[in-house]
Amino acid sequence: MSTFCIGSIAEWLTAFIALGALIFSYVQIKNYKKQGRIELLSDYNKRFCANEELKVVGKYLEKECGLNHHYNVPEPDDHQVEMFMRFFEEIELLINEGAMDEETVYYMFSYYALEFDKKKNKWKRVDYESGNWKIFRMFINRMKRIQDTVAMVNPQI
Length: 157
Fold this sequence. Notes:
By secondary structure, this protein is an all-alpha fold.
């Protein structure tokens, strides 16, 4: 075999090894990002379930919808309502940054946010329509859009 042929084989072999390493790195990074998103969703779910201010609003919404009969659940105060809205604003920002998948967020978190939106007239002390809550309204609109898509695909829902 000539030196030219051996050199060409070596170049091709090097190129294939480099391509393989590049593909392997891409897959590893993608898996790392996926794992990070899963951990982030898990952390937010734990936070939603553990945070007393969020739980008060959640239990109140359940009572209002007739899902749970927490007869002694008081109406949330302004601070609790604002913390509830801020929680969903954070999620909206994370969706915008690509750190969370909107459809996964819909299945994990939208119920309470959409129920809150249905009852927005109850929260008269919080100026829901002000510019301060634009990101929260963006989250609600995103969840409604996904809900409408789900309803078109699965009309029985």
